[in-house]
Amino acid sequence: MYHLADGELTETNLYGAIEQQSPEYVFAGGHGSSSVFTTMDAQPLIVACSNDEVLAGAQVLFASCLCGVELVPSAYGKGALAVAGFSSEFTWVVSEPYDPASDPYAYPFERMIVEPVLEVLRGRGWAGWYSRLRAVAAEERARWGQVVDDPMASQIILCLNHDAGCATYVAEGEYVGGGGGLDPVLLLGLLYGLSKVV
To answer: What is the pLDDT of residues 36-58, one digit of tens each?
Structure first.
């Protein structure tokens, strides 16, 4: 396992790590737009239809906003074995007095990232990732639905619904997720030759 912390996460370091390590999995946490994954300080790292071929042969999760729109299907089309992300903003709730690592409001959203990744690492694939993400959202909605004395409970439930609804992945020619309506990811996925859209 190779880990690049915030200050180490640069385009040069990321490409070097991928080139040297040839990782089976790339779990990337940062910020994003529909076509660009960036560092936490908004430095572009992976750009759809530009440099996403660097992910060829890997299974990738972009734990960031909007990358599910263009970057996920583009990276898949450039040879990544599987790519997952979110087709809208990933929303979460934090409380100012807490460090995010110990914030009880942030915990449900941490679970939505960490537990599904563990499913992938246990060999349950991206269908397992998607299923676990949705299960965590349901468990946390039920838990926070029982909280009557915290005004943030309803906001947490709304954000959990939103995030679970915009989770998406492409693997083995199949596009799954992304929300309602005629999703632009669906259109891009069809352009990249995906055989099944769920």
So the answer is: 999 888 899 999 999 999 999 99
Place of tokens 């960036």: 38
Task: Find the angle CA(117)-CA(120)-CA(124) to the nearest 5 degrees.
Answer: 140
| Inter-axis angle of helices 107-119 and 125-145, nearest 10 | 160
- Which residues, in sequence order, are bridge partners of residue 177? 168
Domain ranges of the chain: 6-197
Which pTM was predicted? 0.85
Spatial contact of 90 and 163, defined as CB atoms under 8 Å apart: yes
Give the neighbor-by-neighbor strand order of the sheet with 44-47. Answer: 31-32, 36-38, 44-47
DSSP string, 87-147: SS-------TTS-TTT-TTTHHHHHHHHHHHHHIIIIIHHHHHHHHHHHHHHHHHHHHHT-
